[in-house]
Amino acid sequence: MLRKCIVFFILGLLMSGVGGVSFAKSTVTVLGVWGGAERDAFIKTLEPFEAAAGVRVDFTGTRDLPAVLTTRVAAGNPPDISVLPNPGQMQEFAKIGVLVDLGKFMDVSKLKNEYAETWINLGSYRGNLYAIFFSADLKSLVWYNPEAFADAGYEIPETWSELIALSDKIAAAGVAPWSIGLESGAASGWPGTDWIEDIMLRIAPPEVYDKWVNHEIPWTHPTVKRAWQLFGQIARSEKYVYGGPSTELTLNFGEAPNVLFTMPPRAYMHKQATFIKSFILKYNPDLVPVKDFDFFPFPSIDPEYGTPALGAADMFAMFNDTPEARALMRYLATAGAQEIWVAQLGKLSANRRVNPNAYPDDLTRKAATILAGSETFRFDASDLMPAAVGSGSFWSGVLDYVGGEDLDSVLERIEETAVEAYKG
Amino acid sequence: MRTKKIIPWLYLSPALAVLGFFLIYPSCHTFYLSFFDRTSTKFVGLSNYIYVFSNRVMITAFRNNALWVAVFTALTVFLGLVFAVLFDRVRYEVVVKSIVFMPMAISFVSASVIWKFVYAYKPAGVAQIGILNAFLARFGISPVAWLIQRPWINNLCLVVVGVWVWTGFCMVVFSASYKSIPKQLLEAARVDGAGEWRIFWSVIFPLLIPTLSVLATTMIVFVLKVFDIVYVMTNGNFGTEVIANRMYKEMFQFRNFGRSSAIAVALLLLVTPVMLLNLRRIREER
């Protein structure tokens, strides 16, 4: 009886765990936010790597990335490579020492040639490079329907006063000039933050923007207040926005451009980043880029500050230093990999060596040229701020302000959370 | 002799071990963490608790939870009782009870998505996709953006979703209780000349009070934890914040472990009196 037990026990051991150890590890686990079309595009980007290196990439996409990643890092089980939601979180991970220094196995000087200084700085902590930028979006764009503009005889505005004059003209004709959609589930309010950030860049020098991001000036500062007021001049107005503030608060950001393409149009302009192209095509598959929908740069406000570019990007960082993960990181940084990625979706690449012809259409190419050529470029502020502000009080502040609340009390409330959040 | 005393403990020990590891240890650890800062490295004493009980958003959350407790409990219990008593008297009882109970089969998240469409708002003059606004449009009333009307309408709209899901539960429990009332009692009352209304208040209702108190306490403890509905429909914006949603945000989005632990402990403190009341009632019944 006892002998039988021992035999079965040993057999059990052999069959369960021990057998698995004999296979060599040739997979890389990657965690990201992408689902649907974006996920397919990423899988396609990985195909040349998997074929050449003989390594399998195990990609998991989750919209709840911050929570999942934080939990896995805390549990000591991080993915080999992960997309990071924003540079702020990358800095926090680098500070606690869970990220692998890319300089150990990547040619940083070559990367410095391929990526502009801003991208290298944003991916570094204390002089060491920890993250590379993969997918970029340009935000300072106003989308419009060229045919609707031509029919009504409207001109593209180049200054804020021209923009307001155009909005008045359209409103006088009985149509809403702007379509704004702030709803985004748990992230509602973020499109408003893009407005305010672009305005900040156009009413003060970029150094003031940087101070605002680092909380060296308070939220109640007159420049910040002016940015909000300019945003409110359009966003809180019943006549300027399609459906008024009530619609703005409940309209999903992905559906907001749709009213530009109805017959007759119910709105004429929509400020949004480059990624909105895939949403426009999803809801209106018959539209042709450039002919049926196009964009113009968000106009300047105070002419001395011009039209800086505001953008955001997804970054990859490495948590486990394995040879397979190293190979994948090297691959992802190359222009070749990024050409495959941008060719499919209309996203932009931060890599200067990406061939412009890789972009699927002239629209994306135009945006890539603006991004590469802009004198002043700044990363999205709400992504750089601590989460309690950037993904918290800033978003809800926008909703409260558009909902009718007094600006001073909104700014004071954000300032309260900022004072706490920037301490830790 | 001694083995007889130990044996019950031996039988209990696996369950106690599981309880200890998954319930008692985490609770103690949370309580411990609530006195530290956001990364659990620096002792900060009571400052997290001061935040929990004085911060503007938290006070809104407490107010909203109070609203949920009052309205959700009252409506589910009241409607459950009404349905149980009334449906008992009709031939198609099984059909209606099934219909009322069906929402229990779906998760809170699914219910929230459904009701998000019910409350959907489009500007006046455009085709309404939300049932409520489409209904209003039939009568020429301009549409209402239900989920952004503060302070009470949007909260009540969210409570309605919860009531829609859980009334079936209360109805079923009341129904079981109601059907166990001996028919002779009711007949005797009728023979004595009592009207239906009198019978309900003097005979039926007193016999249902134990069930009612069980259901009320269960619903109260349950609704203090409400999270999914608020998270999916408004994410706590527009003045609809609740305690559990705050805890989630502080923990996973803002990564402030001290504060989220303090919120969790505050929630536990809120639930404890209700649980003690329940326990005392059970003991009295014995």
From TrEMBL, chain B:
Top-rank lineage group of the source organism: Bacteria
Ranges for domain ABC transmembrane type-1: 62-278
Keywords: Cell membrane, Membrane, Transmembrane, Transmembrane helix, Transport
Keyword Mitochondrion among UniProt keywords: no
GO cellular component labels: plasma membrane
The UniProt record lists the keyword Transport: yes
Entry's localization field: Cell membrane
Membrane-crossing residue ranges in chain numbering: 6-25, 66-87, 99-119, 126-146, 152-178, 199-224, 257-279
Family: Belongs to the binding-protein-dependent transport system permease family.
Protein name per the record: Sugar ABC transporter permease
